[in-house]
Amino acid sequence: MVRTKRDVVFVDDPALTSRAAFILLRQSLAREEGNDYESWLKFRDKFLDGKKLTCKYCGKTDLKKESQDDLNILATIDHVVPLSKGGSRYDERNLLIACFPCNRKKKDMDLEEFLSRRVPSESPCFG
């Protein structure tokens, strides 16, 4: 695993959207010092409850709160202003629902930067 301040990349995993990569990412986040991962999971469940789980970036519908087999349909919470750029972790005005592939591709880009890089003719999650 190669770690940078911007993201976590698993070099040995050929499919970054595989279940194994997701499990490794969860374990890595849970171990990080100062990361209250259990509180985040509780907040995530509460935030996603009762909402239409549609990706705000690509429009993919019928996302799932949990997905063991297909991370392409996993609903995630994206920080519009990334935490690394001063965004608030729990402020709902800074959060939106995104599919796992879009959230992974956005990384810590500002919203405007991410949207300007997408190519509409590519696959729904920008290739």
Description of the structure:
This protein has helices at residues 19-31, 37-48, 100-106, 111-117; strands spanning 2-3, 8-9, 75-79, 95-99. With 127 residues, it is α+β, with helices and mostly antiparallel strands. The chain has a single domain, classed as Herpes Virus-1 (2-Layer Sandwich). The two termini are 23 Å apart.
Proper CATH architecture = 2-Layer Sandwich
Shape: globular
Biggest sheet layout: 2 strands, antiparallel
Mean pLDDT: 78
* Number of discrete domains: 1
How big is the Rg?
A: 14 Å
Give the key terms.
single chain, two-stranded antiparallel ribbon, Herpes Virus-1, 4 helices, alpha+beta, 4 strands, 11% strand, globular, disordered N terminus, 127 residues
Indicate the topology.
Layout: E1 2-3, E2 8-9, H1 19-31, H2 37-48, E3 75-79, E4 95-99, H3 100-106, H4 111-117
Antiparallel strand pairs: 1-2, 3-4
Summarize the entry for a quick read.
The protein is an alpha+beta fold and 127 residues long. The protein has one domain (2-117): Herpes Virus-1 (2-Layer Sandwich).
